[in-house]
């Protein structure tokens, strides 16, 4: 099986590389760029070796995709992208320290708390409905809470 027309198989792979590169710009996620690189290498191979079978082209694309992803993962591990918001994609990390209200009484260590517009499963000491609590940890979608200290009554004036 061969592709006729301008560029043949090599041209098709380079068009695929271009489309993947554009898709990476439209939907950033730092993944499609690796596939675009693999498609470009496969396109160059198809130009260099005319008549290369489609199965070999697909194998080349799979191999170079794997290599590019592994190199990319290693690169981003060694050179992480700096951000002003270290918890940007860490929802559990963003919850730590938040003050919440008990939604369903925590009894025998289990209950529910109101977080934003949702109700989350919670674990912690017994607390009645409406009690304020602070999130100290998140484990498997369950928030661990501790009661907030009760405010001291204002001192009375003696006179």
Automatic annotation (TrEMBL):
NfeD-like C-terminal domain residues are 93-147
Enumerate the InterPro entries for this protein: Membrane_assoc_protease, NA-bd_OB-fold, NfeD-like_C
Record-given protein name: NfeD-like C-terminal domain-containing protein
- Any stretches that span the bilayer, and where are they? 54-72
**How does this protein lie in the membrane?**
Multi-pass membrane protein
Instruction: Using the record, list the residue span of the signal peptide; answer none if the entry has no such feature.
Output: none
Listed A to Z, the keywords are:
Membrane, Transmembrane, Transmembrane helix
| GO CC entries | plasma membrane
Please indicate which superkingdom the organism of origin belongs to.
Bacteria
Q: Where does this protein reside within or beyond the cell?
A: Membrane
Query: Which PANTHER family would you find in this protein's record?
Result: INNER MEMBRANE PROTEIN YBBJ (PTHR33507)
